[in-house]
Design a protein that fits this description.
Blueprint: E1 11-15, E2 21-26, H1 27-30, E3 38-39, E4 41-46, E5 51-57, E6 68-69, E7 72-74, H2 82-94, E8 99-105, E9 109-113, E10 119-123, E11 126-130, E12 143-150, H3 151-159, H4 166-176
Parallel strand pairs: 3-10, 4-11
Antiparallel strand pairs: 1-2, 4-7, 5-6, 5-12, 8-11, 9-10
């Protein structure tokens, strides 16, 4: 008798322009040339020396394969706490457990179109997290490479036209507006999150 577990269908939360949940859609099929607005998140992982963990997306990803981007992105499951979803996804993609996580950009939203017409269309709150543990172990299904670089060096790379994901490029000006030193950035207000987002973690 086979012991193989059945595939579990993952769902994303669909939202309206006001950030209210209006339904769900299978994650595997939501990204098309008519992708509906849905809930996501981005995370920038820093160490105590001011470095940021930059990743390269796996080459077989449906959207922006092999592109350089921030530490981690993902989608909360329906009814999943958004902060816990970030912790879960960082661990799944990079094999690490982040701490001292905080909300940075509660209302970030973007839309981007790939050359083949595939659309990303997300309400995407942005988080920062601290990690000083062992080296990350990227999951090859999601990430082909991960490296630590000084935050200022990454900012210069993007400013000078370095190729990064469209969401990362759009997030950078908002993050830079928070100040030059990530450890001193002001924490965003949970009440500014989309209504569909649940953020219950301690922000201390």
């Amino acid at each position: 008798m086979s012991t193989t577990s059945p595939m579990v269908t993952e769902y994303v939360v669909l939202v309206d322009d006001e950030g209210r949940a209006v339904g769900t859609s299978p994650k595997a099929t939501v990204h098309t040339d008519r992708t509906p607005l849905h809930l996501a998140f981005s995370c920038y992982v820093f160490d105590s020396r001011g470095n940021v963990l930059i990743t390269q997306r796996a080459g077989h990803k449906k959207t922006w394969p092999s592109v350089t981007t921030n530490s981690c992105c993902g989608h909360p499951a329906p009814d999943e706490d958004l902060g816990k979803a970030v912790v879960r996804r960082v661990n799944q993609e990079l094999g690490i457990v982040v701490e001292a996580m905080r909300l940075l950009l509660p209302d970030f939203r973007y839309r981007a179109v790939m050359d083949d017409g595939t659309v990303e269309n997300e309400l995407c709150p942005v988080f920062g997290a601290l990690y000083d543990g062992p080296a990350p172990v990227p999951n090859p299904d999601e990430v082909s490479r991960a490296e630590w670089i000084p935050w200022a060096e990454f900012v210069r790379f993007v400013d000078e036209g370095g190729a990064v994901s469209p969401w990362c490029r759009e997030q950078l000006p908002h993050l830079r507006a928070l100040g030059d030193e990530p450890s001193q950035w002001q924490t965003g207000r949970p009440e500014d999150l989309p209504e569909a987002a649940r953020y219950l973690l301690d922000q201390a």
